[in-house]
Structure formats: C-alpha cells, structure tokens
Specification:
The complex is a heterodimer of chains A (99) and B (556).
Chain A lengths: L1 E8 L5 E8 L5 H11 L19 E4 L2 E4 L12 E5 L6 E3 L2 E2 L2
Parallel strand pairs in A: 1-5
Antiparallel strand pairs in A: 1-2, 3-4, 3-5, 6-7
Chain B lengths: L1 E10 L3 H12 L4 E4 L16 E2 L11 H11 L6 H20 L25 E2 L6 H15 L4 E4 L2 E9 L2 E9 L4 E12 L20 H8 L4 E2 L4 E8 L17 E3 L7 H4 L9 H13 L9 E4 L4 H7 L1 H9 L9 E10 L2 E3 L11 E3 L4 E2 L10 H23 L14 H7 L12 H15 L3 E2 L1 H20 L10 H25 L8 E2 L10 E8 L2 E8 L5
Parallel strand pairs in B: 1-2, 1-8, 2-5, 8-15, 14-16, 17-18
Antiparallel strand pairs in B: 3-4, 6-7, 7-8, 9-14, 9-19, 10-13, 11-12, 12-13, 19-20
Helix pairs in contact in B: 1-4, 1-10, 2-3, 3-10, 5-14, 8-9, 12-13, 12-14, 13-14
The chains are: A mainly beta (99), B alpha/beta (556).
The complex binds flavin-adenine dinucleotide and FE2/S2 (inorganic) cluster.
The site of flavin-adenine dinucleotide has 41 residues of chain B, from helix 1, strand 6 and helix 10.
Chain lengths: 99, 556
C-alpha cells in the first residue's frame, strides 16, 4: 500500500494536511474514513448510501464538486488530493453543509 | 436545554416517516419530523429500486387474494395475517395517491406501466419510478407534499434521538441531541411515531446506509415496547463482496444470473433444483453461505455470479446497478462478479397492531422498525409497500389520538441522566481520559454479530455472542468521551454504538429462543421446523432482557 497526501480546507479556511494509506481502488470517502479512524476522530463529514444515490456526500474534490463516495481518490494539483466543503450555503463544520 | 412542543413527533424521514407525516399533518395536528441525517436522504428508502403493487397495470390473474397468499407463503408461518391483509387491500390506493401527488411510474416500449417479475411473487407485480430510483422518487414526491402542508409540518435534520421519554407508562416525547450545535433538547409530544428504519450496520457487510444502526429497536425497548421475531434478519443473497469500496452493493437481477462456486459448479442445482437462482432470499443466502462455509468459496469468502448470457436485459432493466459495477471495474458483459450475502433487512421489529400502535400507549411504529408483516422472509419489493400503507395508517392514527388529548406530559430528566449522557454534555469526570474509541466499539459489535448471529447460527455461537456483547457493554462504559466539536463523526458513533449494542442483544436473545430453523433464522443444531409455530418476544426491563415464546393468536 502506498500513501496519498490529502489537504482539507476546514473551519475558517484553515488547512489540514494528512498522509493517508492508499490503494488505487479507494474512493474519496474511503480516504476520509481512513482519516477519521487513524488521524482525526473529530473530522466532520456527511454521507449515507455509499452508492451515488443520496448526494449527501457531495464536496469539492480537487476544485470540482463531486460525490465523495463515487469519485476515486487521486492527487490533483501540487500532488495533493484537495477537499473542501461546497462553496454555497452555510458550512456547519469541516466538510458538512447545512441542509 | 431547549424544550420543544409538538402534537405528533415522527423520528425518521424515510418512506415510512414521511408518509406518516403527510397523513398526520393533513388531519390538522402539528407534526415535527426529525432525522439524524439530512431529512429525506438518509435511510434505506433512498436505495430502493422497485415497489410491489396492485393497480390498473396489474397483470391478468393478479388480485388482493393472490398477493396475500404470496406474502403468507413467504412468511414461513410467521407473517401476521391481519397486517398482510391490510397491505394487500390498501397498496393500490396508496400508490394511486402518490401518482396523484406527482410520482410517475416507469413505462415500457409500449408506453404502458412497466411491470417486473420478482423472485417469490407468483406473478409479476413490481413497478418502478425514475428509472429504478424508485425510493428516491417516492421520497421526493412525499417531500413535495410535506412542503405543501408546511403550516402544520416541520422538519429538522441532523438531530439524533437518544431515548424516548415516558411518564406513567406513556411515551411523552424524546430526548434528542442536535449534532450541529452539540446540544441536548427535549421534545414533548402527545404521540410519537418511530420510523427509524433497519439495522444492517450491526453486521460488517451490509447494503444499508450508514444510518441503519438499529436505533429504533433500542429506543422501543427503552420505552418498554415488545420486539417480535427479532431473530429474523434477512441477508440479501447476492451483493458484491469486492472491491471493498462497494462491498454490500445489492444486485437486483440475481434471478437472471447463474451462481458458481470456486470449482465452477452451478451449486443451486443441489439446493433448489427446480427454481435454481430464482428462489427466495432465505434459501439463496443459506445455500451461498453453506458453499463458502464448506470451503467452496473464493479467497474473499464469496461465490461467482455470471450474467454474461443476459447482459442486455441487465443493462436495460437495471442500468444504475450495471453502471455501478462497471465503474468499480466489474464488467458484467465479460466478467463474473464475486458475491455473497449482506445484512439487508429485518423482518422482526416492534410489535404493532393494524394502526402501527405498539404495546406502549402513545408510541406508534412504522416501516422497517415495525415487525410482523413479513414473518420469516420478506418478499422483494414489499418493504416500500409496507412503508406507504402502514406509514399512512400510523400517521392517521397518531394524529387522531393526539387530537383527543388535551395536554402533553412533561417528563423530568432525572431517570435519564447517566454517566454516558455526561460524556456527551461535556460534564464527564472521565473526559479526556483514554478509552476505546466509539468506532472500534462499532467494529467489535459487527464482528460479534457476524460470527455468532449471521446466516448460519449455532447454539454455541449464539452463547458466545451473548457473552461478547456483555463485554462490549463494559467497553461502552469505559469508552472515550467523544470530541464534542459540532458534527464530529466520533459523537455520532458514540451515540449509535449504544443503540447498536441494545439492538444486537435483542437479536441474539430472540435467536437463542427459536430452537428450530424457520425463515431467515437457520440454527445448524436444529435444522428442522418445530410442529407448532410461535413468535419470539423480547422486552427490556430494569436493564435486563426478557425473552419469551409467544403462541399464535388463538393458539394456546
Ligand atoms: C440498497 C437497498 C435496496 C433496497 N431495495 C428495495 C426495493 O427495491 N424494494 C423494496 O420494497 N425495498 C427495498 N429495500 C428495503 C427498503 O428500502 C427499506 O426497508 C425501507 O425503505 C425502509 O424505510 P423506512 O422509512 O422504514 O426507513 P429508512 O428509509 O431507513 O429511514 C429511516 C430514517 O430514520 C433516521 N434515523 C434512524 N435512527 C435515528 C435516530 N436515532 N434519530 C433520528 N433519526 C434516525 C435515518 O437517518 C433515516 O433517514 C432496499 C433496501 C436497501 C438498503
Ligand atoms: S453517500 Fe450517498 S451519494 Fe455518496
């Protein structure tokens, strides 16, 4: 297993950096779960179905909106997988928007 | 702590909770629907593909009687005839109402409503909407209707229920935790409807969404309600085992498929020579688990599914599933997929009457959290029908009862304040100390249930599961106080793991009391059926589980 560098835009535009164990079949959601389990138990993210239906796991992935349960994890610019909450609406914390 | 008042409180916003909300609000009562996730987007309903129905599209030969007979046959003697009769009698009216509110059923090439066959139904009677995203279509239709009733109907997302409140043996509301602000609130209500869905997350491989942690069964137990036939857990036979990112994803077209073990043998010929793969879920799951158990599975503990002889039909009837497989690297036109059973649905649940009323005054239960309709095996596509028919009934009945009651009771919190709750409010003396993480506790529960209370069970396995769950209880007491930042995943796991243990114990107790193999419950120490059928009934009193065998109505 290799690693992937992850950058998450969190509260007040503060950035967090993580180095996460990674295999190419992992989705972005798998990576966030890995962060929750091994790096930061307080991380806030939302998901439900894991199969691309509910759309609650939507976030900015390498600068574009996408479903984190469907998108494969891949490094983007500068070699980071960059995650951020969707730009519109109120952010509750980290990657979670108010619904 | 905030105190909120309403007439009818509905916990859960899947097809059952939202149906209930619309019917309750139409009768003029103030209704509040809460959900621990995003309202209308967080339950199993989202993933449902088709719904069994009767209507003007029904094929020649279909009728209430045939439908009823199919449900009773499939229920292995445990299906409640009163509930089954209501379902068959009212489904047509409910679907037509949804159509009137805007739901569009999918049509075939002739522009007629497309009617699909489903294993276990003696005649084709399943319909769909939004090209097989039927659950989503139903939720959107109900949400639209709910918005049109907004003077009476409010929804509240991201608030998780910790306990139901009771006063003089009546359910009077709920203690809830607002995940966005990390704040406790009390909701006082004249009646409460539990519609929290299922419990697939008690097992390591499940088709269910992450919210399906069995909270409703635990909440019902806490309020004194009886749970019926909780050992009846349905495993969806054909779900993907690999790759890991989609483990548990359900394949709806297994009745078109051929299943092979690792030696290339089409093993269903040994178990069900007449129907082969086109059989009910309990039989298929048991056959698949037995093949793997006897060493004829793949390295991933799976068997192979082959649809290369019928991919065009798969593509046209189940496009979302076909594409999902393709996207994750399983090309069904050329490859076999590795599949196995995944925890999918629970037939058991809170015991209800025809109006969804539980044995506790003031508490109604509907949807997957309620028990009894499906008995020992649920027929495919009957879950959504159940949600519509009994959601409507529970909503109506709860509203009627609320209308008759003048006052709400207020309940003091004294009986509920525990060390556990203190950890959640930040007053805990153990805050900051090390302890097991809530996530690890969840994982532990899943492995205990997988080993001891999965598809194939045994006395020894069940006893071990009971002992191990006692140990998990201790872990829970020693659990690390979770990070109290808003919406932290750890807080959610902390709360859910507590519900999971209570529900898991109820399943294990019920399974220990069924000393036969019936429906989805298979105990290898008792492979046959007992002559006189009975229900299992679990209650929870003074921190102890009490499980009894219950004779059938009319039996002694
Ligand atoms: C992948 C999949 C496919 C399926 N396909 C079909 C099909 O094709 N046809 C069919 O008939 N059935 C199908 N089923 C079964 C069916 O979807 C479910 O049984 C049914 O939708 C359950 O509806 P519900 O309203 O009871 O619960 P759900 O839809 O599960 O909703 C429960 C809600 O309660 C909320 N909740 C839970 N606990 C709490 C708490 N403590 N506090 C606050 N809120 C809470 C949850 O967040 C959730 O939103 C499928 C199930 C799955 C998982
Ligand atoms: S979790 Fe439902 S779409 Fe991603």
């Amino acid at each position: 297993m290799s690693v992937i560098q992850v950058k998450i835009e969190r509260d007040n535009c503060e950035m967090s950096f993580f180095e996460v164990a990674y295999s190419t079949d992992m989705t972005v959601l798998n990576i966030i779960e890995e962060i929750y389990r091994h790096h930061d138990p307080a991380i806030a993210y939302r998901f439900s179905c894991r199969t691309g239906l509910c759309a609650t796991c939507m976030m900015m992935i390498n600068g574009k909106p996408g479903l984190s349960c469907m998108a494969r994890a891949k490094p983007g610019e500068e070699g980071y997988l960059t995650l951020a909450p969707l730009p519109k609406g109120h952010t509750i914390r980290d990657l979670v928007k108010e619904v | 702590m905030d105190i909120i008042n309403t007439d009818v409180l509905i916990i859960g916003s899947g097809a059952a909770g939202l149906s209930a909300s619309v019917y309750a609000a139409r009768s003029g009562q103030k209704v509040l629907v809460i959900d621990k996730g995003a309202v209308g987007k967080s339950g199993s309903t989202v993933g449902a593909v088709q719904i069994a129905s009767l209507g003007e599209w029904s094929l020649n030969g279909d009728s209430e009687e045939t439908y009823l007979k199919d449900i009773e046959e499939s229920g292995r003697g445990l299906s409640d005839p009163e509930l089954a009769k209501i379902l068959a009698g009212e489904i047509s009216e409910r679907i037509n109402e949804l159509i009137a509110w805007g739901l569009k059923l999918d049509v075939d090439e002739k522009k007629e409503v497309a009617v699909f066959s489903t294993a276990g139904h003696s005649i084709s009677r399943s319909v769909s909407a939004r090209k097989g995203k039927t659950g989503l279509g139903i939720l959107q239709t109900l949400l639209k209707k709910a918005r049109s009733l907004k003077d009476n109907l409010k929804t509240w997302s991201d608030v998780i229920t910790l306990e139901l409140l009771t006063s003089s043996e009546r359910v009077t509301g709920a203690l809830v935790f607002d995940l966005t602000e990390n704040k406790l609130s009390i909701i006082h209500a004249k009646t409460v409807i539990l519609a929290t869905g299922g419990m697939g997350q008690l097992y390591p491989v499940t088709s269910n969404p992450v919210q399906a942690t069995g909270d409703g069964f635990s909440l019902g137990l806490g309020a004194g309600a009886a749970l019926k036939d909780m050992e009846q857990v349905q495993f969806y036979p054909v779900s993907l085992k690999a790759p890991q990112s989609v483990a548990g994803f359900c394949i709806s077209f297994y009745h078109y498929s051929r299943l092979y073990n690792k030696d290339g043998h089409r093993f269903m010929a040994d178990y069900e020579p007449w129907t082969l793969e086109n059989t009910t879920r309990d039989k298929l799951s048991l056959a698949m688990a037995s093949e793997v158990g006897q060493g004829r599975g793949t390295e991933n503990g799976a068997v192979f599914m082959d649809v290369t002889h019928t991919t065009s039909r798969v593509k046209s009837d189940f496009p979302h599933e076909y594409e999902m497989c393709m996207d994750r690297g399983v090309d069904l036109t050329t490859d076999r997929a590795e599949v196995g059973p995944a925890a999918h649905f629970i037939m058991g649940g809170v015991q209800i009457d025809g109006n969804g009323a539980s044995s506790v005054p003031g508490l109604y239960v509907t949807g997957e959290t309620a028990g009894g309709l499906h008995g020992g095996n649920r027929l495919g596509n009957n879950a959504l029908s159940e949600c519509l028919v009994f959601g409507a009934r529970a909503g109506q009945a709860a509203a009627n009862e609320s209308a008759e009651r003048e006052n709400r009771f207020s309940t003091s919190l004294n009986g509920y304040v525990s060390e556990w709750l203190q950890k959640l409010t930040g007053d805990s003396p153990v805050r900051g100390k090390n302890g097991v993480s809530p996530y690890d506790i969840k994982r532990k529960i899943q492995s205990v249930m997988d080993e001891g209370a999965g598809v194939v069970r045994s006395d020894k396995g069940l006893h071990q599961a009971r002992e191990k769950l006692e140990k998990v209880d201790v872990l829970l007491k020693e659990a690390k106080a979770p990070s109290l930042k808003p919406y932290s995943r750890e807080v959610i796991d902390f709360i859910e793991s507590r519900h999971m243990v209570r529900t898991a114990k109820a399943i294990v107790e019920a399974a220990m009391h069924r000393t036969e193999s019936r429906g989805a419950h298979y105990n290898e120490d008792y492979p046959g059926l007992e002559t006189k059928p009975y229900h299992t009934s679990v209650t929870y009193l003074d921190d102890r589980f009490v499980c009894q065998r219950q004779p059938f109505k009319g039996d002694r």
